[in-house]
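Input.
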Amino acid sequence: MSAAVVPKVLESCTLIYVEIDENSNKVWKGSVLEDGSFLAQWGRVGSQLQSTSDEFGSVILAKYQLARMKRQKLRKGYTEAQIIEADRPINVTVGAEELDAIAARQIHHGEDERARQLIRYLVETNIHQIVSQTKITYHVETGTWRTPLGLVTPNAIALARQYLLQIAEGNNKNSLTFGRLVSQYLRLIPQNLGKKLDDSVFRSLNELQRQQEILDALDAALQLTPKTIEEGENVFECKIRRVPGSIEWGREKFREIRTLYESTINANHLAANYKLKRVYEVDIPSMRRAFDVKASKIDNVKLHWHGTKASNLLSIFQKGLIIPPADAVQCTGRMFGNGIYGSEQSTKALNYATNYWNASGNGNQRVFMLLCEFAMGREYHPKNWSRSFPRPGYDSTNVQPGVAGVINQESIVYSIDQVNIKYLCEFEED
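Output.
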């Protein structure tokens, strides 16, 4: 007995309706099949969909039915989902085994197995950051990121960023406007908010930062595509080498960095009980070259600590450190302007890696900190807090403890070419 032949889908459309105030999280999908039938599917996002099929005996009539149903749904407030349908050509995927292999191949680590293990961990952490906090799943067989409605696309992520920014800006506005923004965001990045949708969670700064980190992780993962590989494009222009403890120069470098770390520990910080365990040399050539040009002009180069979570490192190795737009979600709390922040005080920066300052991250991640060169140039030393930074005629801001309510030293530069990552340091709680 031969198996039944499934008719090919010739055309399809996926519409979504998410409205916080109505507790609605619905999807409708219409498909025209090559045998002239029309298939309609509907239900709650993430749940088993109901379906019905109508036999028209004509592809033209089936397409007319799709167009008619689509118009009806759009008039009711549905919108087209920003996805790639499963039956369309897909060029934004990468095999699961390649996700790790590409990073390992393009982040140069020589024969250093410890560095290779680090890269594998960063890839796994990047995946976990996404799948553990959303309804987005990672399909091992195909290497694709899929929402309950379809594959995540770069355009969907870009649009989600715009909505997230509007959500942050509209936090104090009327609940109707705020709810609509959250509804639009959830149409792109479905969230596990239970049977009852509640937008109040998006009024939390920690939640907004968590959503930003999810989008960053998705962006980094989606850069690893067959297209970029086929065209010979290097997603990662980066070298990592563990500072070895088996030879003298490695032991000396480790002791030097450990002394720098321990000499600036603030015993009052929760991170004060962390010990330096491993050091990796990092070289991002484009970052280093830009820094060398800038530093040769303004001078005054200092070593500063910059704390970050492990789930951010894959993106940093891809793009270097960035300065988000002044109104971006992650810029909240930047007292001295929109720039890259570092500190002479090690545990001040390490608190960022251990989620002391920002509770949005995964507390089970390994703990890392970057040791960076900062080209400070002409420093501005504020005596009190001001809204205007950077100050005209200055290249950086150096804030000493006790100024403007600041307890720990902070250094801020306002151009990405004023920072160069030298070392990645790993810490463990004592």
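The longest strand covers residues 9-19.
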